[in-house]
Amino acid sequence: MIQITYPDRAVMAELMARMLWEIGAVHFRPEQPYKLASGMASPVYIDCRKLLSFPRIRSTIMDFAASVVTRGAGFEQFDCVAGGETAGIPFAALLAERLALPMIYVRKQPKGHGRNAQIEGNMPEGARVLVIEDLTTVGGSMFQFIDAIRAAGGVVDHAIALFYYGFFPEAEARFAAGKVQLHHIATWREVLAVAKQQQLFSEATLGEVESFLDQPLAWSARNGGVAELGLPKK
């Protein structure tokens, strides 16, 4: 039997943010910014793959994901769940189990030998596919997988990122142009709110992070990164 509960969206976001802090998946370092794949300088970094190593947290997050998707998209809207190489693959398996759906996964490129497959698993023509990734910034890699599924005859109208950066207008424009509704559980705003509430850093550090979330490219440019957004891998 499939059992899905429907906590308040704000509660799920706050709890996920607390979980990420608890397992050490979040890092604030404005004095020595991280360099992202896009070339941006960032005072924040997150590793959502760590969720997989904590069974109680992992299970709760997948409950949240099932709640978010069924609430936002409906109950009979998908024929399978797809994970992108590599971080999305285990989460796709977990969410497919929660939703009692088949699972497939998508390579970044065709594997170059054998059947030269890019999509592994059974995806019938016209299958309605839910794509999942651990996180997304502006949707670069997610659309790499979505485009591959569509090219193979699948239909993608919905995607879920467990964690969404949530402060790039380019992301909203990309998903709107690609005709995909993006679902997510938590963003950097909830992560910052928990850090403030629990006084995890100095006021100066929290202020720098908030400044970045308000104007990420301006902050990046001031700290040695790019001033314009390219196409990040996530």
User: Structural class of the secondary elements?
Assistant: alpha/beta
| Strand proportion | 15-25%
Largest sheet: 6 strands, mixed
> What gross morphology would you assign?
globular
Question: How would you describe this structure to a colleague?
Answer:
By secondary structure, the protein is α/β, with parallel strands linked by helices. It is 41% helix and 20% strand. It is built from eight helices and ten strands. The chain has helices at 9-22, 55-73, 88-99, 140-151, 169-177, 188-197, 203-214, 216-222, and strands at 26-28, 34-35, 41-42, 44-46, 80-84, 103-106, 119-120, 128-136, 155-164, 181-187. A six-stranded mixed beta sheet has the order 7-6-5-8-9-10, with helices on both faces. A two-stranded antiparallel ribbon has the order 1-4. Strand 8 (128-136), helix 4 (140-151) and strand 9 (155-164) form a beta-alpha-beta unit. The two termini are 34 Å apart. 40% of the residues are buried. It is an enzyme of class 2 (transferase). Orotate binds at residue 137. This is Orotate phosphoribosyltransferase.
